[in-house]
Amino acid sequence: MKFEKPNSIVISGTGSYLPKKVLTNFDLEKFLDTSDEWIFGRSGIKARHIAADGEAVSDMACVAASRALEDAGLDASSMDLVIVTTVNPDMLFPSTACLLQAKLGIRNNIPCFDLEAACSGFVYGVEVATRMMQSGLYKNALVVSSEKMSSMVNWKDRATCVLFGDGAGAVVLSASSDENTGIIGTVLGADGSDTAMLRLPAGGSAMPTSEETVRQGLHFLQMDGREVFKHAVKIMQEKALEVLDLCGISADKLSLLIPHQANTRIIESVAKRLKIPSEKVYVNIENYGNTSSASIPIAIDEAARSGRIKKGDYVLFVAFGAGLTWGATLAKWDK
Question: What pTM was estimated for this model as a whole?
Answer without folding.
Answer: 0.97
